[in-house]
Structures are given as C-alpha cells and as structure tokens.
Amino acid sequence: MGSTILPNCSLLARDFSSEEERLSSIRQWLTEDINVISLRTEGLWSDLSDRIVEGGGYFRTAEHSAQQPGSRLEQYERDFKSGRINLLSCSTTMEMGVDIGGITIVAMNNVPPHPTNYLQRAGRAGRRSETRSVALTVCKNNPHDQHVFDNTLWAFTTQLPAPTIKLESPIIVQRHINSMMLASFLRSQLSNSASLDKLDMGWWMLPKEVAPANKFIAWAKCFDESKETHLASGLRSLLRHTCYEGAVSLGRLAAEAAAMLSAHSHEWFGEFDSVELQLAKFQGAIKEKEPAYKALQIQQKRLTGEYLLRELAAEGFLPGYGFPTDISSFETMTCDELERNKTRKKDDRIDNLLRHRELPSRGTVTALREYAPGAEVVIDGLVYRSAGITLNWHAPASVQAIKEIQNYSGPQFSDSELR
Length: 419
What we know:
- This protein has helices at 19-32, 34-41, 47-54, 70-82, 115-122, 143-150, 154-157, 170-189, 201-205, 212-221, 229-239, 250-280, 291-305, 308-314, 335-343, 364-370, 415-418; strands spanning 61-64, 87-90, 105-108, 134-137, 327-329, 355-356, 359-363, 376-379, 382-385.
- By secondary structure, the protein is mostly helical.
- Among the domains are: 10-54, no CATH class; 165-320, no CATH class.
- The chain has a 3-stranded antiparallel beta sheet with strand order 5-7-6.
C-alpha cells in the first residue's frame, strides 16, 4: 500500500479582510491543489473534507443507548464533554443518572409518556453555566402527542399522584424475601473488604460442588428461625401488610427461595456445560486458533463474568429495581468483534441494563418485533440483519442444537375463531 500525502492549506493561518474573501480563497485552493485533486480521484477526499477546510459548522454524532458496551458509552461521554462529539442520540437511559456535562439543547422525537418523564428529559438542558437552553419536542399524529400539542402546559399543570406500593403480589413479596436472605448470606460469606458489585456468576456458581450458590440452597432449605433470629425478625417486618402476613411460615418462604435458585442453577449449568462440551471438541493448537473456538471462549466468559445481581434480577430471583426481566439477546458476534474482544477489558456498567451477558438485549415482547427474522438492527452506526430465531434451549446456538428436543405449546384459539 502506497503512502498518502496529506494537503497542507497555508491559507488557514492567514488573515482576510472579509469572510467572503476567505471562503473564495479556500475554495479556489480546493480546486487547484494537486494533492487534493489526487485524493479526490482516489475517493479519499469528499465534500465533507471541503467543509472541514472551509471551517463550516458540523455535527459529529454518536449513539448513546443501553445496546452499547460500557467502555464505548464512557468514551462517548468523555468526547461529548470535551466537545469532540456535539450531538448524542440517546435512549431513555439518559433520562436520569448520567453526567455528560453542559447541554444547550434537548430534542425529543416524540412526547414522553408522563409529565415526570418530560420534566426529567427537558431538565437536562441548562444545568451548568449555559446562558440559554432549548427543549424541543416533536409531536406526532397520535392522540397523546396531539393532546400535548394543544395543551403545552401539560407537563406543568398535570397533577402527579403520590407513588404507591402494592403488596398483594406473591411473586414480588417472594423476590424481596429472596433479596433479604441473599444479603444476609453474602454478609456471612464475604470479608469486609469484598465489593458486592465485583461479584460475578463464576464466583457464585463455580466450582459446582462447593459453590456459594449450592451453599445458599442448602442453607435456605434447612432455614432455622431459632438460629437466625436477626434475619427472622427482619423477614417478619418485611412481610407486614403483605399477602403473606400470618399466612405462610418463614420456613416455607425460605424453601421457595431455595427452589427458585435451584431452578436457575440448573438452567445456568445447562448453558455452561453446553459451552464446555463444545470447547472440548477443539483439541490441539490448530483448532484452538479457529474463530469458532474463540467465540465459544467469549461465550464462556459472558456466562461466568456476568454481574451476579444483574443475572439474578434478570432471571426473576431478585426484585427488578429497573433490571429488565424476560429478555432476549441478539447475537452479533463477528470476526471483527472477536478481534476487538482480544484487547477489550471487562467494561460492564450497572446502569447499562439492556446488555445481557454483553449482548444487545430487549424485553421478549419488544425483541419479537425488533429482532424478528429479516429485521435490520442499527447499533452504533452498523446495520445488522437478523437471520432467524434459535430454538435451542442451550446456548450458544450450534448446528448440533437443531437436534434438541423442543417442547411446543398447543395453539391458542379464541371462541370466535372456533365457530
């Protein structure tokens, strides 16, 4: 590959009597400079290059969404603060909690669903030393947006009801029971210096025979109120005014926690053992260099490196607290991604909730639409085309997984369809 000589425009350092004279001189240089002409012929110099030399305004954009890896989001935030990026296209995760410096304009491409959402988003502009700020909302042709268009004080005059908590749901109460029991168990297992946000699934599940997960299951199955008086008192306080108060014993709730975690462990090891089995097939130095082997290694790291509390919340063992449940992942692994993973450090962020095991993910209902076969998914400027839905219940998907026994539910019909 030959070397490329970059043009040097000396006009940029000169003073001109007027803006018209400056632009005229630069544009003439762009048509006459030999290096520019050569680069333009090779397709290496575009009209955007002309605009940069002319000094015109421009937008450098980036996608800031939960579909991105944590390291990329952090880089975009640094670039936005320094001015290297001046336009961020954000998902609703930017509504709260992420500091990206001073913002002068917030543009919303539809009306937020609730006044509090609007106030949070619009309030991101003008928080620093900006002398002016703008919040712009595009109202689409639907009832909600048109109502707000006709009533522009909607976000400021709507009465906001006080938050309420409903304690009639058994599964919600059970998840909080699980959370309190897990917290007590982890305190007994960890030293004071251990950091909870550093715990991953590898620590929790492996080695299988003596893993903390197995210890928790055994402890919960044999829960003894007389030996766990402090925890038992906390659990009774938690159950006050709930559907379980006075109706279910603590031993039964502890046994249910053990059963839920045991079911999750069985499912997790189904995936982990499948990866281990496929890795065992790649014996020898030559096979271990194949992309498929490297992809399996990354899949294994995703399983063992997943943040413990995120995994347990996503699987319904712990309360959600904003963690999405019933999620489906979109497999985007390519050879280029394999190369990037060689040097990328562990970069998961707790606020990056929609990346499950480092893969773009959505709630199952949304995923059925956005990840449907043939759909195009845009992630950070790259367009991925969904090739299909895997039926395997072990991961990762493979040709051998086609032979797995599937359990199909019967079709559901309404009364009108049966007539």
